[in-house]
Specification:
The complex is a heterodimer.
Chain A lengths: L1 H13 L4 H13 L10 H27 L5 E8 L7 E8 L2 E7 L2 H8 L4 E7 L3 E12 L5 E12 L4 E7 L6 E5 L2
Parallel strand pairs in A: 1-7
Antiparallel strand pairs in A: 1-4, 2-3, 2-5, 5-6, 7-8
Chain B lengths: L1 H12 L10 H15 L3 H11 L2 H5 L4 H10 L3 H7 L7 H20 L3 H9 L10 H14 L3 H10 L9 H12 L3 H12 L6 H21 L2 H9 L8 H14 L3 H12 L6 H16 L3 H30 L2 H8 L7 H8 L8 H5 L2 H62 L4 H4 L6 H96 L5
The chains are: A alpha+beta, B mainly alpha.
Chain lengths: 182, 542
């Protein structure tokens, strides 16, 4: 709503205050039919609705994250490609404390996004405070067309702050590095 | 051109993250914004950016190009333009504003708003990382061509540094600017040089074919038939411009008096089923050539085939208009609401329904494409709002349960905490004298440390949980308010979707009707020609 209001006041500010414009504006207002308030500019109206909808979706996203993943139990796992490396990911699977939490098969578009600096959020969930084990199984295509499969375990301690873990994959050795990023 | 702009945009979107000192989690969030943006998930990119970052952190994030792209893709260009009105505080802010202005200029150029694009280019001051002078000059030249300043466009393109200019595209556009500014000789020379370019790049090969087509028709118009033939012959037989080359080549041979060879060229086109202006022209030209050769029977047969084809095409256009009137075009766009990014456009054209809605023809129209994009954006947002309303209900329920479960689990947790505390106390030395004993065993010390850590961890968890559970009812209330606002917005979105859909349908019907009238015109001509050929064939005319 705030944004919509800002846009509206911005539009009003465009109706500048020169006497000629003001008289023209008055003339137009007087000449308008009685029901003119119901006739809007569809393009401008749809813009205002878009702003409002994005604002609401944004608020919902923020509130739901706050409710569903409180920082003291929140754990997020990200996947990125190592600097100066070019990887052809095939699939990834992750388990926390022995239970599989997610897996993912890659499309070419996702591979390109990862190789140009994008970082994929693989998982967000909740775990209790204390020691945990993350297991990452990653498959990537080699240059000769074969598939290389690697599995790495990572132990971490969850404290009262949000836990961010980054899996860094590489086409060189070691193929998987895992780091806490808090 | 689109390819070049795509490359520049991609370069901007993939700018390295180097600017300010960042925390590790900031870097992850930037990477996530970039990932969603590169996938074309603009709304998600915007959500991650807006939700995960505080305003001050957001300003220092070097992902502004991705965010600008996301905002432009969602039609929020006003927001981007507003940000340009602030006074840049430092060098980073100035560069950031320049990048935004450049992206807006590209956006307005693509949206066929050249004057606004120029205004944005004029705002760029000084050097900017990610946007070179060649990029801005090239775009300026293209905009000048849109507004009819061909001489200025040709000059700018001519002066672009050879090493940095986008090879091929510059030459082609320069040739067009030269021709349109009246410098025929220079324009032809530039086109001819480009028409012989050696390359394996598929986009450049297509552009080279187009250059040869343009050159061929120019030579044909002035009667330089040999040069026209050579130009058409340089066009590949398996490229996107093969049809135009065959048609032009046929007319050149026809003008040279070589009717038999013209027939060979047009016969290839005559076999094609696709209906477009080039194929229709060939379907009319081929029987015309036969009648010139005196083969009136053959000409009559071919005209009859053309008449049949046109009739079936006119019927198909009428069926498409009916489908549009029944709302199928709007529905097809709304149904693709789950597809984010530019892919929905391609998907829509590929999955054209039955009867076909003539989407490639419709989407060629700038105004219709813009309306379709707006409808898609509105449908996409409505989809998110609908999903949001479902998930809000679940979240409110979750909030209630979280509170209930917390209250139920609290006594047990407190007991556990107390037990750990008692354990620590039982292990701790009872008096300072005991503490001073020299040969203190190592094991209890390790155990004490472990218990202390466990106890601290419990305390931290209890504090964090208490804070969280205190906040839960507030979140629940905020969600309830949000739910009501979303319901109102959902209604407004539905009404906007319906309005946009009606506008879109009116525009589509006008385009289909224009095409139908054009085909009817061809149909009339073909009918007359058929009657004439039939008369000649049956000896009624001498």
């Amino acid at each position: 709503m705030k944004r919509t209001h800002t846009r509206f006041t911005h539009r009003l500010s465009k109706l500048v205050v020169t006497p000629i414009r003001l008289s023209l504006l008055l003339a137009v207002m007087l000449a308008a039919p009685a029901h003119s308030e119901t006739v809007g500019n569809p393009a401008a109206d749809s813009d205002a609705i878009k702003y409002e909808a994005i604002e609401l979706v944004n608020r919902l996203y923020r509130l739901e994250r706050e409710l569903l993943y409180p920082v003291h139990t929140q754990v997020s796992v990200f996947l990125s490609v190592a600097d100066n490396s070019r990887v052809q990911p095939h699939s990834v699977s992750i388990a926390i404390d022995g239970g599989k939490v997610t897996d993912h098969l890659y499309t070419q578009k996702e591979i390109d996004a990862l190789n140009t600096g994008g970082i994929q959020r693989l998982y967000t969930g909740n775990i209790p405070l204390g020691n945990h084990k993350l297991r990452v199984s990653f498959r990537q295509s080699r240059k000769d067309g074969s598939v290389q499969a690697d599995t790495v375990d990572y132990k971490f301690n969850k404290d009262e702050t949000a836990e961010n873990i980054e899996i860094i994959v590489d086409n060189r050795k070691p193929p998987i590095a895992i780091k806490s990023r808090n | 051109m689109q390819r070049l702009i795509g490359t520049v945009c991609f370069a901007l979107l993939a700018l390295p993250i180097t600017a300010q000192a960042q925390t590790a989690s900031d870097r992850l969030l930037q990477g996530e914004v970039r990932y969603e943006s590169l996938l074309g998930h603009h709304l998600d990119a915007l959500l991650v950016y807006n939700s995960a970052l505080t305003a001050s952190r957001a300003q220092s994030m070097p992902v502004e190009s991705n965010i600008t792209k996301a905002r432009l893709a969602l039609g929020l260009n006003d927001t981007v333009e507003q940000a340009l009105k602030a006074t840049p505080g430092d060098e980073d802010a100035r560069q950031s504003m320049n990048r935004r202005a450049y992206q807006l200029a590209l956006f307005y150029y693509d949206s066929r708003k050249p004057m606004q694009a120029l205004e944005m280019l004029d705002r760029i001051e000084g050097k900017t990382e990610g946007v070179s002078t060649t990029d801005t000059d090239y775009l300026r030249a293209l905009i000048y061509m849109k507004v009819g300043r061909f001489r200025d466009a040709a000059r700018i393109l001519y002066e672009l540094p050879l090493a940095q200019r986008p090879g091929g595209y510059t030459q082609y556009n320069m040739a067009m600017a030269q021709l349109l500014s009246g410098n025929e000789e220079r324009g032809r020379a530039t086109l001819a040089a480009f028409g012989e370019l050696g390359t394996s790049d598929p986009d450049l090969l297509a552009l080279r074919d187009l250059a040869n087509i343009k050159l061929g028709y120019r030579y044909l118009q002035e009667g330089s038939l040999e040069q026209a033939r050579e130009s058409f012959n340089r066009v590949r037989l398996d490229g996107p411009y093969t049809n135009q080359a065959l048609l032009g080549s046929g007319w050149t041979l026809f003008a040279m008096g070589n009717l038999e060879r013209a027939i060979v060229s047009w016969s290839v086109l005559h076999k094609k089923e696709a209906i477009n202006d080039t194929v229709i022209e060939a379907k009319m030209a081929l029987p015309f050539a036969y009648s010139k050769l005196g083969a009136h029977g053959k000409a009559a047969n071919l005209y009859a085939h053309t008449v049949e084809l046109l009739e079936s095409e006119i019927k198909a256009l009428e069926a498409a208009s009916d489908a549009v009137r029944k709302g199928e075009l709007g529905r097809a766009i709304v149904d693709s609401r789950a597809v984010q990014g530019e892919d929905w456009f391609a998907g829509l054209a590929r999955d054209d329904g039955q009867p076909p809605l003539y989407l490639p023809l419709l989407l060629e129209n700038d105004a219709l494409r813009e309306q379709a994009a707006t409808l898609h954006q509105l449908a996409q947002l409505n989809n998110r709002i609908e999903q949001g309303l479902v998930s809000i209900a679940a979240s409110i329920e979750y909030a209630k349960r979280a509170q209930k479960n917390y209250k139920a689990a609290l006594p047990e947790a407190e007991e556990e905490l107390s037990a750990v505390y008692q354990q620590i106390r039982s292990i701790l030395p009872a008096s300072p004298a005991q503490n001073d004993q020299a040969n203190k065993p190592a094991e209890p010390a390790a155990e004490i440390s472990l218990l202390k850590n466990t106890y601290d961890s419990y305390l931290a968890a209890r504090k964090a949980s208490a804070e969280y559970i205190k906040r839960v009812p507030e979140v629940g209330r905020e969600l309830s308010i949000l739910s009501k606002q979303m319901e109102r917005t959902e209604k407004a979105l539905k009404s906007a979707i319906s309005g946009t859909q009606k506008q879109l349908e009116a525009a589509a019907l006008a385009i289909l009707d224009q095409k139908r009238r054009q085909l009817k015109g061809y149909h009339q001509k073909a009918l007359f020609a058929l009657a004439e050929s039939y008369d000649f064939a049956t000896g009624k005319q001498q």
